[in-house]
Specification:
heterodimer, A: 454 residues, alpha/beta, seven-stranded mixed sheet, 11 helices, 25% helix, 25% strand, B: 647 residues, four-stranded mixed sheet, IF_2B-like_C (chain B), cytoplasm (chain B), NagB/RpiA_transferase-like (chain B), initiation factor (chain B)
């Protein structure tokens, strides 16, 4: 279909600090014991997109991501990994791989999404309107553990009110305005000419940019070349394209009418008529009306695709989101996980060992080779592979990654224990994050803390 | 005007049958007839080369296994070779070749592995990246401060067939030839014939499993081919077989050919349930039948419009064999972005030009036959998006004829070039050129002081008006419009921009404004051989009012839209639009007077797209062969149609 897919699999995210590290790049953060990148790859594979370019920041991270992909997806996908320098931003990353982009349109997918929205829909909308850029918007997810109630704490207080503010035309086809909700303090400027041309603008704060974009390659490359200062796709490139949609500097390549140009003069005439017939046939978008009103103005279209509300979509960009995703993937959105659930709505690997009187509740996951001692209780939690959990341990709403060790009598609520971490006896954690390999001393009682080596 | 004819049509059903072609009688159809019916081009004139050939080729599943797996082997050595040089330039690319010691790395028999094997061999010590050495440095220079980075292939997979075909042209073909030879030998022609006969018999006996036979066979054949090709590790093999089967299954109907064979007849009777079920099973576009349909129009397809577009959009990447250009046109038909007979026809032909341009004959196949099959599968996809107009039917017939008539001696590139120029000639001569001639003729009929009425937004009429204005004729235009499409507004906008004085009104007011009109110019979707003009709904009303007021009615219609069919009413063949379009005002949720009634079982919406104007109400038809009375249409059809479409 002449689309190239680029996955921006980031490198390091400061929002996720104790969870990600040099050893675990963001893309490999486990969600229900699978790297988050695997969800993106699965989504693309199920849509028959098998030629992918994965862009990773930093050499080491790229090596790790590449190693994982080659072991997991060999024979299924044709993946190429590109390493770019750190901190170049999304736009910089695309600049670095720009010479590999050859297809007419580029589909750019963030590597940290867990979703079941078919990317084909964005591509189709993009093609249908012959747009310069098409953005997928989706409903704002219900953040925070609203139904489970257990955790919350500090995350609840800073729950983002609205992430993005988008302006749509009355047909909900075109993007007229986009801004980050946090950037808008008191007042904001809306381009008057766009507002006049479109006639009506609907401002919405309940939609969120999903970081799945379809770009026309020529437009994208031109913008990246012209504006070397642009660092981020979402914060620089996209608003720029939206802002300038009625006074386009980018050469949206000529209509596909021609290219059969062997005849000369009377052919030329015919072609004019031909394109006229074609353009007259359709309802003109406000871009065309505007273009025809003012001569020699060029426009490009910025389209949106609004995903169905029933679809699941979460971006893994904060610790809270990480908890949410883990909870949902083995809970409400379990069709994404790819596992088959037992009759108790949980997944206990056959090689996991459970002590006597230990209960594993629904919406739980117990990885391969993990051992759980006696009289433990596990609720709504994900426990990784080869973990050793002592007796009388209570784990609720938490994520325990591979090879963690938890001593007897611990109580863990709403926390993340990274791989190889160790909790000694009778530790009580509530809304804490424990870095990989960290050792929490016995008997402590902690709330809302982050354990990391300085 | 219809009221005169209706009683007859209703009292005596035989009259209605005259309107149909005999082949569309559903019950008595023999298998042969079925074959003809499923051919999207109804007319018998075109079918001989197509439909007699296609059945024999249809279930030759051994030939049509897409053998995609071997393809990658050809692409990667190239890539690897390029990589050798590029690694020096791109500092950030790194090597995986030494990491490539996964447990399964030793099996080189399976194509996937094979490709990787060769790939590793050619670039053992260095990293691999996309070819693009020259560009590397260029891009690095251009992109400020960000060093260009190379790509590293970390996982190689069998490419999807479409892509692979494109990526590696001729080499792959030779490779595939090798592969498919043994299969060929296994089944002789007679055997295939027998299999095919058996299949056909089975299909005729049990209609129910009609759609399912092809996927089964093709999948099984694919699996055998895989087995033949590579005695590899069982696990991967199973995986790939299942993938192959999955792909064929996913597509709805398995391969293009099967889809073509089962393509819904353009005038399928949609009140015949068994046929509808059958058609639905192979449909690409998910079609939910609308529940409340008007009794008289049950035989026409009507779908819940809301569901089709999103569903098709989500399948964007899953329709492998569909050409992007065709897909785009289909989406535009479905969403109504392109409407109007000429524009739809041109868009389709241009898409076909793209198809021809990107076409390469699969091995062991004949260009003429395979291309016809391909075009047919695209056409059936387009039909699912929106029923064909008669003009499109004629254009498709033309294209297929050109393909069938291609001399067998032509090389592939010559044949492609010939086809492309043929299609272009059709667009230029039969559509654009015809419009020019029509304009030349019609302008002579416009005098100073005329008041011209037009309805909707016909392209030819618009060109006439603009040309007459350029000739400094003094006239006024009355644009009559109707809901829900309000196409007239677009015409109005364009006319006013040129400085033509216009009046705009809706069709409700037609009898009031007809007093001042001196001539009526109308467009047409088609002119049938009894002189009936088949056009945008409302045209008949305008023509009838005009003739009641003794105002001449001139119909502008290119001759490629003429059709030999005879139709007496607008019931037997028509198109139903989106029923929501008449119950709602788009973009204005506040205007929704019928809210709450839409799901009432007693309420049925009828949004007809076309109507038939009897020839009595038409003074003259302006075509590229001159201005003729409606009675002369059969002459033009008889004398010129052959030359026109079959040349």
């Amino acid at each position: 279909m002449d689309f190239q897919v680029v996955i921006l699999a980031g490198g390091f995210s400061s929002n996720l600090v104790p969870l990600v590290s040099k050893e675990v790049p963001k893309a490999l953060l486990p969600v229900a014991n699978r790297p988050v990148l695997s969800y993106v790859l699965d989504l693309l594979e199920s849509n028959n997109l098998k030629d992918l370019i994965v862009v990773v920041e930093g050499e080491d991270a790229a090596l790790k991501v590449g190693g994982w992909i080659s072991s997991a997806c060999v024979d299924r996908l044709h993946v190429e990994v590109a390493a770019v320098a750190e901190n170049v931003g999304t736009a910089g990353a695309l600049r670095a791989i720009a010479h590999h982009l050859t297809a007419n349109d580029i589909l750019i997918v963030s590597g940290d999404i867990v979703s079941d929205i078919p990317p084909g829909a964005v591509a189709a909308t993009h093609r249908r309107h012959d747009a310069a850029v098409t953005v997928m918007l989706c409903a704002q997810p219900v953040s925070g553990p609203s139904e489970s109630g257990g955790s919350g704490g500090k995350d609840k207080t800073k729950k983002p009110a609205c992430e993005d503010i988008v302006g749509l035309d009355s047909w909900k086809q075109f993007l007229l305005y986009i801004a980050k909700g946090t950037e808008i303090k008191k007042d904001t400027r809306v381009n008057k000419s766009i507002l006049c041309a479109a006639g009506k603008m609907e401002l919405r704060s309940d939609l969120m940019d999903s970081h799945i974009y379809a770009f026309k390659r020529s437009v994208l490359q031109e913008v990246l070349d012209q504006k070397p200062a642009f660092r981020s796709l979402k914060q620089d490139v996209l608003p720029y394209l939206v802002r300038t949609q009625l006074r386009s500097d980018v050469s949206s390549d000529q209509n596909n009418v021609e290219e059969n140009g062997n005849g000369k003069n009377n052919m030329q005439n015919n072609e004019v008529v031909l394109s006229q017939v074609l353009s007259n046939a359709s309802l003109p978008s406000f871009h065309q009306v505007y273009e025809s009103g003012l001569d020699s103005r060029k426009t490009h279209k910025c389209c949106v695709y609004i995903a169905d509300e029933s679809k699941y979509f979460v971006r893994l960009n904060s610790i809270q989101a990480f908890m949410d995703v883990n909870r949902d993937v083995i809970g409400d959105a379990n069709h994404l996980s790819g596992y088959s659930f037992s009759a108790h709505h949980n997944i206990v690997h056959p090689s996991a060992e459970l002590g006597s009187k230990t209960t594993v509740g629904p919406h739980c996951m117990l990885g391969e080779g993990s051992q759980v001692g006696d009289k433990c209780s596990v609720k709504r939690s994900v426990i990784g592979r080869h973990c050793r959990i002592g007796s009388n341990v209570k784990i609720v709403n938490s994520v325990v990654m591979d090879h963690a060790t938890i001593g007897d009598g611990c109580s863990i609520q709403g926390s993340v224990i990274c791989s190889n971490a160790q909790l000694q006896e009778r530790v009580t954690l509530r809304d804490c994050q424990v870095e990989a390999g960290y050792i929490v001393c016995a008997g402590g009682e902690h709330k809302g803390e982050t354990f990391a080596r300085k | 005007m219809e009221s005169r004819r209706n009683p007859r049509a209703v009292v005596d059903p035989k009259v209605r049958q005259v309107g149909f072609f005999t082949s569309s009688q559903p019950d008595s159809s023999s298998t042969q007839q079925q074959q003809q019916q499923t051919d999207p081009i109804p007319a018998s004139a075109s079918s001989p080369p197509v439909s007699t050939i296609s059945p024999s080729g249809n279930s030759l599943s051994p030939v049509m296994i897409p053998p995609p797996r071997l393809n990658s082997s050809d692409t990667f050595p190239l890539r690897g070779a390029a990589a050798g040089a590029s690694s020096a330039v791109s500092p950030s690319s790194f090597s995986y070749s030494n990491r490539r010691d996964f447990p399964d790395g030793s099996t080189t028999a399976s194509p996937g592995r094979h490709s990787r094997g060769s790939f590793v061999k050619s670039s053992t010590p260095v990293a691999s990246s996309l070819p693009g050495i020259g560009m590397d440095s260029m891009a690095a220079a251009k992109s400020s401060s960000v060093p260009a980075s190379g790509l590293t292939t970390v996982s190689v997979a069998t490419m999807p067939p479409g892509l692979a075909e494109k990526a590696s042209g001729m080499e792959v073909q030779s490779d595939q030839k090798k592969n498919s030879k043994p299969l060929k030998e296994k089944t002789t022609k007679a055997e295939r014939r027998a299999i095919q006969e058996a299949q056909r018999a089975a299909k005729a006996a049990a209609k129910a499993d009609g759609g399912k036979v092809p996927p089964g066979t093709s999948a099984s054949v694919a699996s055998t081919s895989v087995k033949v090709a590579k005695p590899a590790k069982p696990s991967t093999q199973k995986n790939e077989v299942s993938v192959a089967a999955g792909v064929t299954e996913k597509k709805g109907g398995p391969s293009e050919k099967d889809r073509k064979k089962d393509a819904p007849h353009p005038r399928m009777q949609y009140d015949d349930e068994s046929r509808v079920v059958k058609a639905k099973r192979r449909a690409v576009v998910k079609q939910t039948e609308a529940k409340n349909r008007v009794e008289l129009f049950r035989h026409l397809p009507q779908y819940e419009h809301g569901t089709q577009l999103p569903d098709l959009e989500t399948k964007f990447f899953q329709l492998d064999p569909m050409h992007p250009a065709v897909y785009k046109v289909g989406l535009q038909y479905l969403s109504g972005d392109i409407s109007g007979g000429n524009a739809r026809c041109i868009a389709m032909l241009q898409a076909f030009q793209e198809v021809v341009k990107d076409y390469s004959t699969p091995p062991e196949k004949n260009l003429n036959r395979d291309m016809t099959a391909k075009i047919s599968s695209y056409v059936s996809f387009l039909i699912e998006c929106r029923p064909l107009s008669i003009s499109m039917g004629n254009a498709i017939r033309f294209v297929k004829n050109r393909i069938a008539k291609l001399p067998i001696t032509l090389s592939e590139s010559e044949a492609k070039a010939a086809l492309q120029s043929d299609i272009e000639r059709f667009i230029n001569d039969k559509i654009i050129g015809a419009d020019m001639v029509i304009v030349k003729h019609a302008v002579t009929k416009i005098r100073d002081g005329d008041v011209l009425l037009t309805y909707g937004s016909p392209t030819a009429v618009e060109m006439i008006l603009l040309h007459a204005h350029e000739l400094k004729k003094k006239f006024r235009v009355l644009v009559v419009d109707s809901r829900p499409k309000l196409e007239g507004q677009l015409l109005l906008r364009r006319l006013i921009k040129r400085g033509i004085s216009c009046t705009y009104t809706h069709i409700n007011a037609i009898s009031y404004i007809m007093h001042e009109v001196t001539k009526v110019f109308l467009g047409a979707s088609s002119v049938l051989s009894n002189g009936t003009v088949y056009s945008r709904v409302g045209t008949a009303c305008v023509a009838m009012v005009a003739s009641a007021f003794r105002v001449p009615v001139l119909v502008c219609c290119e001759a490629y839209k003429f059709h030999e069919r005879v139709q007496l009413d607008s019931i037997c063949s028509n198109e139903l639009g989106d029923p929501n379009a008449i119950s709602k005002v788009h973009g204005r949720e506040d205007i929704n007077y019928l809210d709450g009634l839409t799901n009432n079982a007693n309420l049925q919406f009828l949004n007809l797209m076309y109507d038939a104007t009897p020839s009595d109400y038409i003074s003259m038809i302006i075509t590229d062969y001159g201005m003729v009375p409606p009675t002369s249409v059969p002459v033009i059809v008889r004398e010129y149609q052959k030359e026109h479409l079959l040349v």
